[in-house]
Design brief:
Strand content of chain A: 5-15%
Radius of gyration of chain B: 64 Å
Structural class of chain B: mainly alpha
Strand order of the largest sheet of chain B: 1-2
Largest sheet of chain B: 2 strands, antiparallel
Number of domains of chain B: 1
Number of strands of chain B: 2
Shape of chain B: rod-shaped
Oligomer: heterodimer
Strand order of the largest sheet of chain A: 1-2
Chain lengths: 236, 171
Amino acid sequence: MEDKIPTFTIAGLNFNLGNDISGVIAALMVLGFVFFLAKNPKIRPSKRQNILEWLIDFVNNIVKGSIPGEEGRKFYGLAFVMFLFIFMSNQLGLFLQVNVGDYNFVKSPTASPVITMTLAMIILLLSHYYGVKKWGFGTYLKNYSRPVAFLTPVNVLEEFTNFLTLSLRLFGNIYAGEILLKLIATFMKSHGVITFIPGIFLEMVWQAFSVFIGSIQAYVFVTLSMVYISKKLEQE
Amino acid sequence: MNALVFGVALQTGDMLIYLILFILMFIIVMKYAYGPVSKMMQKREDKINGDLDYADETRKKADELAAQREAELKNTRTEATQIVQNAKKSGDNQRDQIITQAQSEAQQLKANAQKDAQQARQDALNSARDDVAQLSVEIASKLIQKELSADDQKALIDSYIEGLGDTNGSR
């Protein structure tokens, strides 16, 4: 049941080959998807371009919900790429799981806490960066003592809980989905035809549900990212 | 390096790879897909705004023109009625004038004719009176072979003819 992880170490850095390959595949999926849709954009949009524009509008609206107006404009691209990457990562493990021997090489990258933490880290570091850039370092620090001074420890602690909840929510949802997929797969193989046929139906139902969960989680991740960034951009 | 996350060694290399991967993906998507498409969306938005503005302007202009035309039409109509009225009035005037002129002319003609007739009658009477006087003088002179004074005779005939006229008038 537990897959072994193909790891190696270069210059003191630990690599998990499964994560890396999956990440590259997910990134290529994003690029392929986007390039397929964005081929030869025109004023009068083709069907493909319409899909991409609908997607862009959808993500823009997520950003506008938290950061309205001109200020949010510079986050449209970030939110768009983040949304697509997490979406593709979530879906990747549903239809592609490559195991060689006991080693797992391709799965959902977001089913690994390290990856979700990296993505959350990108967002939160950017939020601090934009906070300092907008207010200056002094005011940025002072913002921790708002609205009242004694809430400062809570506000500082919140930075860590934000990071953990943002990353672990995504990880937990996708990881649980993959575990159940593998469980159903082992159930399918356990007693021949008797378990294979109901197993296939179960697997299909769970895959469909996982597509739904993966989409929701990508949406939630981007929404919360923008909420955290917007918190750093405004004073209470 | 030896730190553990959920029982697994922290894969610092993966973090680095994902960071690079994400940045690369971001740059490529922005430059070759998102950028052109969103630029096209912006362009379309501008174009639609421009078109709408233009349509508003054109409609306004058309409304103005229509109002102007309406006013002109109204103007023309009143002018036309004015012209017709004027023509009618002048026609009436002319007719009245012609009629009065004709009437006065007819009056004149009638008066003239009456006067002429009177004159002719008077002339005829006078000449008849002279003729009769002459005739009677000649008859008398033939009868009595005597030269009567024409003047005496004329007075005599005058009185006679007056008597005739009186008997004619009473009759």
